[in-house]
Amino acid sequence: MIGADAVIKCLEAEGVTTVFGYPGVAICPFYNSILESDIRTILIRTEQNAAHAASGMARLTGRPGVCAVTSGPGATNVITGIATAFADSIPLICITGQVSSELIGSDVFQEADITGAVESFVKYSYLVKNVNDIPRVFKEAFHIANTGRKGPVLIDLPIDIQNAVISKFKYPEEVSLRTYKPTVKGNAVQIHKVIKELEKAKRPLICVGGGVLLSDAQGELRAFAEKHQIPVVSTMMGIGALPTDHPLYFRMVGNNGKAYANRAMSECDLLIMVGARVADRAVNQPDLITKNKVLVHIDVDPAEIGKNAGPTIPLVGDAKHIFEDFAKEEFEGNYKEWLDRLREYRKTMAKKRNPNPAYVDPAEFIMRLSSKMQEDGVYVADVGQNQIWSCGYVKVRKGKFLTSGGMGTMGYSIPAAMGAKVADPKRQVVAVCGDGSFQMSMMELATICQHDIPVKIIVFKNNYLGMVREYQHFTYKETYSVVDLSGSPDLEQLSAAYGIPFLRLENMEKCDEAIDAFLKDDTSMLMECMIDPMDIVR
Amino acid sequence: MKKRIYSVLVENRSGVLCKVAGLFSRRCFNIDSLAVGETDDSAVSCMTIVSSGDERTIEQIEKQLNKKLDVIKVKTYEEQQCITRELMLIKIKYNKSNRREIMELCEIMKADIVDMSKHFMMIQICDTPERIRLMINQLQTISIVEVARTGALALAKCMENDQA
Residue A209 in contact with residue A237, Cβ under 8 Å? Predict the structure, then answer.
C-alpha cells in the first residue's frame, strides 16, 4: 500500500462519498488510487469552485466537504474558496498535491508554499513529511475541521509521500491533541446569569448567526423562543435558523437588513447574540449594542466574545448545548407588549418597493420562487444585489439558505448549489445569481452537464455590477466606474451550447407560469430574469 | 497602552514561529520583543513575547494565541508579576583616554568585557530591559559599533503555591 492508497482509506473511514477537484501531476497518485474506491470524483472547472462545492456539500451533510487539487496554481486557486469557508466557519478538508519533498524550497515547476499562503485562512494545515503520518494527520484533520468553531483544514501531500510505501495502515480511533479541546458545554454560572437577566428583562431579543445552523440547534432555538415568546432576528448567516414566516422571526439585521429588525436591536433591553460575530455588516456600531442594554454573547469561539463588543455576560459554548441547558431552567417572562410593538413595526416599517412594471421585480420574484420551491429546498444566493434581495424576501421553511456571508465571494452560488445537490439529490436546489456573479462561475455549467448535477440557476440580468453601481450611485452621485457588463454572452445561446434548457422572464406578467415550468422537473435549467438596471436594494 | 508579557508554550515544530508571528502582523498587534527557545522538554518551545495595546487588544492577543493549534499554553503577565531578563552583546570602539571610564561603567552595571582588540571591545550584560537601555544610553557617549539583544525572557515570580 502506498501513501495515496492510505489517503483514500482515510477518506473512506471518515465516510466521505464525494471529492471535488482538479488533477495535476502532483496529485495524480491520489487520483489514481481513488479509482479503486467507491468515492465519487467530480471534475470541477476551476479549483476555487472545488472548495465552494465542498462547502455546499458540508452545509447540507454537517460533515467536512472534501476537495483535492494539484500543487502550485491549483493550490493557490483554491485559496479564495478556503477563505470563503473560513469566514463562514464551514468544515472543509482541502488536499493539495505538492512537489517531491526533496525539491520543496527550490522553486521548481508548480511549487507553491501553500501551507504558508493559507495560514490566516485555515483552522490548521499540515505538510506531510512522512508517509506513516497519513492516518494520524487525516484523523486529526477531520476532527479539527468539524469540532469547536468549524473551519477548513489543508493537507499538503508531496508526490513522493503519496507514492511511498506505508509500512502499516491503521486508522486511529481517537485523536489526542493536547493543544485542542474546544469548550462546547456552557458554564452553569453564566447560564444561570442569563436566565436571571431574562427574568428581569422587558424587551429581550435573540439574534442568531450561522453558529446556530452549524451546531444544528434550530430545533432547540425554536423550542426556547416559542416557550417564552422571545422575538428572534438573525444575521445573514443565520437566515433559516427559524422559518422565515415564523411569527417570532423579524428577519435580518444590519445595514442590508430590515429596518424593523434594526429597530428591535436598538430598543431591546436584553440582547442575546448566539453564534454571531458582531461584525460590521450586522452591527454597524458595536459600541452601541452595549449601551442601555444587557448584552449576552454566546459563541463556541472564545476569541469572538469581546472582539467587537464587550458583552455583559460572555458565554462560551456550542449553541445546541446552551439552548438545551436554557430549556432546563424555569422562569417567567412576559414580553407580550414588546412582541406587539415589534409586530407593529413590522407592519408599518416594511419597505414599500415601487417596481418598474417593464421588468421583473426581483423582490416579488424571490418571494414567489421560494414559496413555490419544495418545502425542504435549498436556496443558494450569490453575492451582490441578488444576495440582498434574497436575504430580504426569501422564504425558508424546512429548507436551507446558503450564501457566502463573511467573505462575500462572487461566484459562490453555482458551485455551492452543485455541492448541495450532490449531497442530497432528492432536494430541489436553486442557485440565484446576478449576471456578474454568474460569469464568475459559468464554466461550471460543464460540470453540471458532465456529472449530471441537476441544479437550477436563476440569473438576474441588469447588465451591471449592481451592488457596486448602487454604491457608486449613492457615494459618487451616479458617477459609474467599471460596472457596465456589456459584452456578456447571450445566455440563451450559452445554455444551448451546454444543452441546458433555458427560460427568459421579461416582466412579472408570466412570472408564476415561468417559475412553475422552471421548478417542474428535476433537471438543470437556466432562467434569465430581466431586471431594471437602475433598481436599488435600499 | 499597557504592556504585557506573554509566555507562550508551543509545540517545537517547524513553522510554528511563523504562525505566531503571522498572527501578530495579521491582526495588527505589536511585538516589542520576541525570544524563543526550547524548554526542558525538547518537544516544547517557550516564546516570550512582550507586547502592548489597549485592554481589548491585550485580551485578544491571548485569545487569538490560544486559538492556534500549536499553542499549548499562554500565560499573560504584567511586568511586576515576573522576573525579566535580557542578554545584550555590545561592541564599542575605545581609545586610551576612555578605557578606564568604560571599565568603571562595566563594574557599576555588572557587565563583563568578553572580547577585546586594539581598538574594539565587546561587553556582555544580562539584566532587566530597563537596565539594558540604561547601559546603551551610557555607552552612546562613547562609540557603539554593533548591538545584539535577545529580547526579554520572563518567568513568573516564585510563589509558595507555585504549580507551574
Answer: yes
Please name the amino acid found at residue A22.
Y
Give the mean pLDDT per block of 10 residues along chain A (538 residues): 98 98 98 98 98 98 98 98 98 98 96 96 97 98 98 98 96 94 95 96 97 98 97 98 97 95 95 92 78 93 91 95 96 94 95 93 98 98 98 97 97 98 98 98 98 98 97 95 97 98 97 98 98 93
Rounded CA-CA distance A464/A460 in Å is: 10
Q: Which CATH number fits domain B83-154: 2.30.42.10, 3.10.580.10, 3.30.70.1150, 3.40.50.720?
A: 3.30.70.1150
DSSP assigned state of A288 = G
Does B159 reach chain A within 8 Å, measured CB to CB? no
Q: Which residue of A has its CA nearest to B18?
A: A116
HSE-CB at B121 with a 13 A cutoff on CA atoms is 17
Tell me which CATH code domain A188-349 carries.
3.40.50.1220
Residue A27 · residue A74 · CB < 8 Å: yes
Residues of chain B neighbouring A177 (CB-CB closer than 8 A): 69
Q: pTM for this structure? A: 0.95
Q: What is the ipTM of this complex?
A: 0.89
Which residues, 6 or more positions from A480, have their beta carbon under 8 angstroms from its beta carbon? A469, A472, A473
